[in-house]
Amino acid sequence: MVYLQGGPGFGCPPPQEAPMTQVILDKGYQMLYLDQRGTGLSTPISAATLGLQGDVHRQVDYLKLFRADSIVKDCEAVRKTLTEDYPSELKKWSIFGQSYGGFVALSYLSFAPHGLREVFTTGGLPPIGQTPEQVYRATFRKCAERNKAYYKKYPEDIDAVHGLAFHIKSKGGLQLPSGGVLTVRGFLTLGRNFGMHGGLDSVHDLVFRMKRDIHQFQFITRPTLSALESALSFDDNVIYAVLHESIYCENGASKWAADRVGRSLREFAWLSGAPQSASSVSEAPLFFSGEMIFPFLFDIFPELEKLAVVADDIAKYSGWPELYDLFQLARNEVPLYAATFIDDMYVDFAIAQQTARLVKNCRQYITNGMYHNALRGKTEDVLKELFTLRDDPID
């Protein structure tokens, strides 16, 4: 069983720290946690390592090789090496894709199904045939719903978030431990956690800590700033920031699609500039954005700042090859078992259902009782349902 982590741009956890490890071993599998290229122990990408490639144009060309199609080729090279001396019936392997790992799994089914015995995904049915704009219109809608849930759970944060925005603006930004300066817009990207189990609570905790610091000291303390930076920065996972929109691109450029879509929505009008501070709790709440990546993030965080020109060139690139083979998926013979979450903030449920209809031999466990990170948050529950799909056929 090969595990493909979400992302893009995140390495696998150490096996002993991954809650699914023991469950998979108990099912009789050997387990391989494969760091996708550019992550973990697989030649990780940073501004410095990328700089070894040469000028900006060489760096951009290098980064074009880090999408799902290339990851599938890596997987096949590893599989063939590991199984070289295996009997023919054992040369195929199983794969498990979480989130973006599921996107990679569908590319695998498209281009190298001969290497696969079975496929499992959690929150990982990609938006096949959708433009980046269509994807972000859907995910912004779900993000708005999660904001409403947040402020319903923590109504006191309506006033608190406005007050923090005013504080940040009045200080000309917050100096972060890494050296970056956090703006109001940067602060309002905290909502990327809203789609996770416990995500509403984690954002509230940061808001509460910031508010408490200002009340006690009239400034935000370093421990709180460190926690805030940890929740916001992609400096240790630059692939996510630089290539995030490209995972939705086939034969076209993204052109910072999330930024363009968000600016057109009333709830996220702050993307066009810092919002005005509220004078009372009756003011409309400030909505946080989700997992979207915006150009201004490359002005805030030091590592991303070094890659701003590279990221902009990637956003303008229109020559992306196709990531999925619709003909192959329509005649797919490899069993696909997918856990799909109705309230997924990152992988829109309606779009996921369109994808499921494109893939032969796709069976789903669909629930509104789990969120996107159920594999970590409710490991045994989601794995039980996936293996029930596999072991209890309805026909």
In brief:
With 395 residues, this protein is α/β, with parallel strands linked by helices. It is 44% helix and 9% strand. Residues 278-282 have low confidence and may be disordered.
Q: Could you characterize the architecture of this molecule?
A:
By secondary structure, the chain is α/β, with parallel strands linked by helices. The protein has two domains: 2-34 and 67-129 and 324-391, Rossmann fold; 132-316, no CATH class. It contains 18 helices and eight strands. The chain has a six-stranded parallel β-sheet with strand order 2-1-3-4-7-8, sandwiched between helices. β7 (336-341), α16 and β8 (362-367) form a beta-alpha-beta unit. α4 packs across α5. The longest helix is centred in the middle third of the chain and has 22 residues, at 132-153. The chain is globular, with a radius of gyration of 21 Å. GO terms for molecular function: peptidase activity. It comes from Hyaloscypha bicolor E. Belongs to the peptidase S33 family.
User: What is the beta-strand fraction?
Assistant: 5-15%
Shape summary: globular
The main pleated sheet reads as: 6 strands, parallel
Q: Rg from C-alpha positions?
A: 21 Å
Low-confidence stretches: 278-282
Organism: Hyaloscypha bicolor E
InterPro entries: AB_hydrolase_1, AB_hydrolase_fold, Peptidase_S33, Serine_prot/Carboxylest_S33
Domain AB hydrolase-1: 2-159
Keywords: Hydrolase
